[in-house]
Design a protein that fits this description.
Layout lengths: L2 H11 L17 H4 L14 E4 L6 H9 L4 E6 L2 H29 L3 H17 L6 H14 L28 H11 L2 E5 L13 E5 L22 H16 L3 E7 L10 H5 L6 E7 L11 E8 L4
Parallel strand pairs: 1-2, 1-4, 2-3, 4-5
Antiparallel strand pairs: 5-7, 6-7
Helix pairs in contact: 4-6, 4-7, 5-6
Bound molecules: S-adenosylmethionine.
S-adenosylmethionine binds next to loops.
C-alpha cells in the first residue's frame, strides 16, 4: 500500500470526530495530499491558533484539531444554515440526536415510495418554516436532507430555498451518534462564527495558521459550480481573498489556500499566478473531481495549493 492509500485508510478508520455533512468541495479525499504541505511550525508548537474561514464540511479542521494542540480554534462560513448546524451540535447535541433518531426510523421503516414522500415533506417544511422553526429540529432536517438528497449536495436556490431532489439510496446512514457526540466535544473549545471571510483578519498574528478553501474558481464555463451561497463567489471575491492573504502575510500568520488550477483548461490563464505572484509556492495536486457539470470530464485534474511558507 502506498503512503497516500495508507493515510486515507487511517483517516477513515479513526475514532476521532470527522465531517458529519457531505459538502460540495469537501476535502476528505484530498487530505492525504494536503497534509505534507502543512507548515512545519505546526509540529514545533509555534502555532497556537487555527482559523478556517470557509469551513464547509470541515475535513481539515477535524484533522488538525485532533492531531495538534491549539489554544484557540475558530471556524466560520457565510452560510447561516451551515453555521447553525455547528452551533446546535455544540449547544444541544442530545436533543438533536433525538430528532435524528426519529427521522432515521421513519425513513428506514417505510417503502421506497413513502421515503420519497417523506423526503419532499421534510424539504418543504425546511423551506417554509425557516423563521418560526425550532433550531435543533431545523438542523436535524438539514442533516437528513443532506444524506438523502441527490448526490449529497446542500445547495440553495436564488431565493435561499433547498431545491435538491430526492436521491435513491438503498440504506443511507443519516447520522452517526458517536461521531456527533465527539464533534460536540470538540466544538466546546471552538469559536463558531457566521461571517464573510474578511472578518477573519481579526485573528491574524504570528502564532496563527489559516487554511482557506473558498468556492473554487470554475475552470470552464460549464463547471460553474459556485453557488454555495445565494450570490455565488465571483472573480472579484477571489481578488478580495488574495488581498486578505497579503494582509495576513504581513502580520506574520502562516497561510495555506486551495483553489482550482485554471491551467487545466487554458495554459495561458494566469489569474492565480498573478494574484499570488509573490508567493510563488504554487504546488499542484491531483484530485478526482466529484462534482463536474460534464460527467465525461470527471477524473484527475490538478489543483492549486498556495502557501506563504517554505516548509
Ligand atoms: C469549498 S467549500 C469548503 C469545503 C470544506 N473545506 C470541506 O472540507 O468541506 C467553500 C465554503 O465557502 C463558503 N463561502 C462562500 N462564500 C463565502 C464568503 N464570502 N465568506 C465565507 N465563506 C464563504 C461556502 O458556504 C462553503 O461552505
Amino acid at each position: 500500500m502506498d503512503y497516500i492509500s495508507y493515510l486515507s485508510a487511517k483517516l477513515r478508520s479513526s475514532d476521532q470526530p470527522r465531517p458529519f455533512l457531505k459538502w460540495a468541495g469537501g476535502k476528505t479525499k484530498l487530505l492525504p495530499q494536503l497534509l505534507p504541505l502543512l507548515p512545519s511550525a505546526l509540529k514545533t508548537g509555534q502555532i497556537k491558533r487555527y482559523v478556517e474561514p470557509f469551513i464547509g464540511g470541515g475535513a481539515m479542521f477535524f484533522y488538525l484539531a485532533t492531531h495538534y494542540q491549539f489554544s484557540e480554534l475558530v471556524i466560520s462560513d457565510v452560510s447561516k444554515e451551515l453555521i447553525l448546524c455547528y452551533t446546535m451540535i455544540q449547544q444541544n447535541v442530545e436533543e438533536l440526536l433525538q430528532y435524528l433518531t426519529e427521522l432515521q426510523k421513519s425513513y428506514t421503516e417505510t417503502t421506497s415510495e413513502k421515503r420519497e414522500e417523506l423526503f419532499y415533506a421534510i424539504r418543504s417544511r425546511f423551506n417554509q418554516q425557516a423563521k418560526q422553526q425550532c433550531k435543533v429540529e431545523r438542523v436535524a432536517q438539514m442533516i437528513f436532507l443532506n444524506h438523502t438528497c441527490f448526490n449529497g449536495l446542500f445547495r440553495l436556490n436564488s431565493k435561499g430555498g433547498f431545491n435538491v431532489p430526492f436521491g435513491r439510496y438503498r440504506n443511507p446512514k443519516i447520522f452517526n451518534a458517536t461521531n456527533l457526540r465527539l464533534t460536540a466535544k470538540l466544538l466546546q473549545k471552538t469559536e463558531i462564527i457566521c461571517a464573510d471571510f474578511e472578518k477573519s483578519l481579526a485573528f491574524a498574528d504570528k502564532a496563527t495558521f489559516f487554511y482557506f478553501d473558498p468556492p473554487y474558481r470554475p475552470i470552464s464555463k460549464t463547471s460553474a459550480f459556485t453557488s454555495y451561497a445565494k450570490d455565488g463567489f465571483k472573480d472579484q471575491d477571489q481578488v478580495r481573498l488574495a488581498k486578505l492573504f497579503h494582509k495576513l502575510h504581513k502580520r506574520g500568520a502562516k497561510l495555506m489556500l486551495s483553489n482550482s488550477d485554471p491551467q487545466n483548461n487554458d495554459p495561458n490563464d494566469d489569474f492565480f499566478a498573478k494574484l499570488y505572484a509573490e508567493f510563488s509556492l504554487i504546488t499542484t495536486v491531483k484530485a478526482a473531481r466529484a462534482i463536474n457539470a460534464n460527467g465525461q470530464k470527471r477524473g484527475k485534474v490538478s489543483e492549486l495549493v498556495i502557501t506563504n511558507y517554505f516548509s
